[in-house]
Design a protein that fits this description.
7-stranded mixed beta sheet; 341 residues; 2 domains; Phosphoribosyl-aminoimidazole Synthetase, Chain A, domain 2; 13 strands; alpha+beta; 6-stranded mixed beta sheet; 60s Ribosomal Protein L30, Chain: A
């Protein structure tokens, strides 16, 4: 019998949970939203990084591991349009681990926290017992103005599908780490490695988008598991389908060069590669240009229109430059089944 995937298991474990009146949004989005007294809503998220699964100390420095561990949580806050405030850091430590390595990880955590005005206010340390893997578990608290939280469930037929930045860089970097014997341009390597080892959470971009409110920016999440899988989350939660135009997908010249040198299709990395941490969002058609320009003006980050929201019965589809339509199957990362689940 096949083991359940990540999202099937989440549904099984959380289906019978009780809630409270002040829980505005529970399981199923990038953050939980708590409606407490005051002008802001509280955002809560958590994520774990496991050595040998999410990072390797053979390829990443301790500082990079620390920065990325916090950045992926910051990205969840960005996906709701919020600003981060407080972090709790828990470490599960194997017996053989040097203080120097831990100092480096905490240097990375501090650097990322200071960059986004986040206070590390506590946490926990535990031994891993017989385990040999380092685990970093982070809980992050943020806030967003009331009536400005952006969630996955508001996309409407006719909305424009947009993405910040470029796609496929992290997947390209991961490929080069797995195929280190091949020849690549060093400049291109440096570019994609930076985006893989130290991703940039789109906090400023999310803040700009949240100011338009959910009536304009109708749905949003960050691309952590891959465009195809994360688009599926928007479609499922919103009860819609989607059509992506392949020719519009924003690809960096560096990623294209590595794909050419590796004889790989760059669109596969753009569609299915995870750990992008770009924002994928839907916007009402009349406001798409104004929203895109506002993000670019305020942050310098380009926004690209990549498709349109369609009725649910059409499912998810891609359209080639020649006009050929095909079903888009999610082939993104699953934390229990691995890539392409």
């Amino acid at each position: 019998m096949e083991s359940p995937g990540e999202f099937e298991l989440i549904a099984r474990l959380t289906g019978q949970l009780t809630t409270r009146p002040d829980v505005a949004l529970g399981v199923g989005d990038d953050c939980a939203i708590l409606d407490l007294p005051g002008p802001d809503l509280l955002l809560l998220t958590c994520d774990s990084q496991v050595e040998g699964v999410h990072f390797s100390l053979e390829t990443a420095s301790p500082e990079q591991v620390g920065r990325k561990a916090l950045a992926i949580n910051l990205s969840d806050i960005a996906a709701m349009g919020g600003e981060p405030r407080y972090a709790l850091i828990s470490l599960i430590l194997p017996r053989q681990l040097s203080f120097t390595l831990l100092d480096g990880i905490y240097a990375g955590l501090r650097q990322e926290a200071e960059r986004y005005a986040t206070a590390i206010v506590g946490g926990n340390i535990s031994g891993a017992g017989k385990g040999e893997q380092l685990i970093i578990d982070i809980t992050l608290v943020g806030a967003v103005e009331r009536n400005h939280a952006l969630v996955r469930s508001g996309a409407r037929v006719g909305d424009i599908l947009c993405v910040t930045g470029t796609l496929g860089n992290s997947a390209a970097a991961f490929y080069t780490l797995l195929h280190a014997d091949q020849h690549y341009s060093q400049d291109a390597l440096n570019y994609v490695w930076k985006r893989h080892f130290t991703p940039q959470p789109r906090i400023p971009e999310g803040r700009v988008l949240s100011q338009f409110g959910p009536g304009v920016v109708t749905a949003m999440l960050d691309i952590s598991d891959g465009l195809s899988g994360d688009l599926g989350h928007i479609c499922e939660r919103s009860g819609v389908g989607a059509r992506i135009e392949l020719a519009r997908l924003p690809l960096s010249p560096q990623m294209r060069l590595i794909a050419a040198q590796a004889e790989r299709d760059p669109l596969e990395w753009a569609l299915h590669g995870g750990e992008e941490y770009e924002l994928l969002f839907t916007v009402s058609p009349d406001h798409q240009q104004a929203v895109s320009q506002a993000v670019l003006t305020a942050t310098g980050t380009p926004v690209t229109k990549i498709g349109v929201i369609r009725p649910a019965e059409e499912g998810m589809r891609v359209v080639s430059a020649e006009g050929r339509q095909e079903v888009l199957k999610a082939q993104s990362w699953d934390h229990l089944r691995g890539p392409g689940a």
